[in-house]
Write a structure and sequence with these properties.
CATH topology: Pdz3 Domain
Shape: elongated
Order of helices and strands: HEEHEHEEHEE
Strand content: 25-35%
CATH superfamily: PDZ domain
Radius of gyration: 18 Å
Largest sheet: 7 strands, antiparallel
Oligomer: single chain
Number of strands: 7
CATH architecture: Roll
Number of domains: 1
Distance between the termini: 57 Å
């Protein structure tokens, strides 16, 4: 008897998803900008990511580079209806500075306030958005 190799679970998932996409003729829609292994986090219908050099270049972000960047928005979601757009840099949430996606999620959970009032920098202009996350 020969030795059989185990196929890693991640490879199985990739193989099965590839087969289903090809077999069903499905199309996969991913958020607008995705770099490396970083997958944007969905928050109120907006996809947000930590600011990276690749995102600064891809989205033509303007300094200062702090906060989190909106990479895509579902226009029918609470974030889209509030006016958020890809390229907005979220700098404040309920008067608390935003430094990273994980810090933003933790502070929203800790504050337990809904809706959340975001301040965002859009190419040098500050916008305020009120977004219900429930």
């Amino acid at each position: 008897m020969g030795h059989r190799k185990r196929i890693p679970l991640q490879l199985w998932f990739t193989l099965i998803m590839t087969f289903l996409i090809l077999a069903l003729g499905a199309t996969v829609v991913l958020p607008a900008v995705q770099t490396g292994s970083e997958i944007p986090t969905r928050l109120g219908g907006a996809y947000i990511s930590d600011i990276t050099p690749a995102l600064i270049e891809a989205m033509d972000l303007q300094p200062p580079y702090y906060g989190v960047v909106v990479t895509d928005v579902d226009l029918d979601s609470p974030a889209g209806l509030a006016g958020m757009r890809p390229g907005d840099v979220l700098i404040m949430a309920n008067s608390e500075p935003v430094q990273s996606v994980s810090q933003l999620k933790d502070s929203i959970w800790r504050m337990a306030v809904d809706p959340v009032i975001f301040q965002a920098n859009r190419k040098g202009t500050v916008f305020v958005f009120t977004v219900s996350l429930r």
